């Protein structure tokens, strides 16, 4: 989908801040599946928390990301996704050792340009939903940078800059600035 843009990259790299700024400008934003799953699991039995069962967590993220995509399929305006199905599939492959993503990843598509937040130690913070360290975030970033191109996507690294500079960068890249 040419109008569906993924913001992915290193955990703690400023994705949520960028998406909040895009939402403030009136763009549709889809919240990260992982954070929603952690909130639901923390309120429930906690069996699919990433630090308890990464494969179960990733399976839930795959299903949620596919449902998110379907929920906005009729939108004619740009939609920005905080991560998405490809991220969830990469996590599932990593957790299970699978060498190929689920078939739906090739069918449920986003714009081929994917915006990647690079590792940025100066802003990285742990929180209740992000319990892993920066080293794990960097490893995930490297996996995603390799995984996206295998599925026909073109990762574009975001500058390490203030949020307004990042917003301008993204909007210039998609022709809205």
From TrEMBL:
SUPFAM superfamilies found in the cross-reference section: P-loop containing nucleoside triphosphate hydrolases
NadR/Ttd14 AAA domain segment(s): 5-166
Question: InterPro entries of this UniProt entry?
Answer: NadR/Ttd14_AAA_dom, P-loop_NTPase
Gene3D superfamilies referenced in this protein's UniProt entry, alphabetically: P-loop containing nucleotide triphosphate hydrolases
Q: Which domain of life is it from?
A: Bacteria
Q: Quote the protein name from its UniProt record.
A: ATPase
Species of the source: Martelella mangrovi
